[in-house]
Specification:
Structural class: mainly alpha
Radius of gyration: 18 Å
Mean pLDDT: 87
Shape: globular
Largest sheet: none
Oligomer: single chain
Order of helices and strands: HHHHH
Strand content: under 5%
Length: 176
């Protein structure tokens, strides 16, 4: 476990910048040295995507979609205050994971298949089903995939510029 200061050093950012991300993405703020590896990786991913010129409005839109998907699947009922980012440190099955929350959907996200009715909660107190209340996992997964494709296009375009900048920085820093 880490402090926010430890995370700031690991990411090369100020504590104030990280606190801004926490506020804008409505992340829980642990006290003291209670920041997990998953929390660090979540912030790292947000910083990397911002560095690659993915807009914060784009990221927060995707963040909302991913959290809605997880809520419809009742992942939020697992009892953790950080339920939506607890998978961020996982590295297996990348094709099955959502982009920001890194949650393993247990199927390749390029497929259209999903086992409807998954419910990780012990019981449901809802009078109506999620679909009747407007929760459509398939629609949200399509929206997720569209948003992820858009982000991938931005990253692809910017990664060439970033590689050039890194190569140039090597030349510049040799002079120091």
């Amino acid at each position: 476990m880490r402090t926010i200061t430890d995370i700031a050093k690991a990411l090369g950012r100020s504590v104030m910048e990280l606190q801004g991300l926490q506020a804008r993405f409505h992340l829980p703020v642990p006290k003291g040295a209670n920041y997990s590896d998953a929390y660090l990786e979540c912030l790292r991913k947000l910083i990397y995507l911002r560095t690659l010129r993915v807009g914060e409005d784009t990221l927060s839109g995707l963040w909302v979609v991913e959290k809605k998907i997880l809520q419809l699947l009742h992942v939020d009922s697992m009892g953790s205050a950080t339920w939506f980012l607890d998978s961020c440190a996982e590295t297996t099955h990348r094709k099955r994971r959502l982009l920001l929350t890194n949650y393993d959907m247990e199927f390749d996200l390029s497929d259209e298949n999903i086992q409807l009715g998954l419910n990780f909660a012990p019981g449901s107190d809802e009078l109506f089903s999620q679909k009747e209340m407007g929760g459509d996992v398939l629609r949200l997964l399509r929206e997720f995939k569209d948003r992820r494709r858009s982000i991938a296009r931005t990253v692809k375009k910017e990664s060439g510029v970033l590689r050039g900048a890194v190569n140039w920085s090597v030349i510049l820093t040799r002079e120091l």
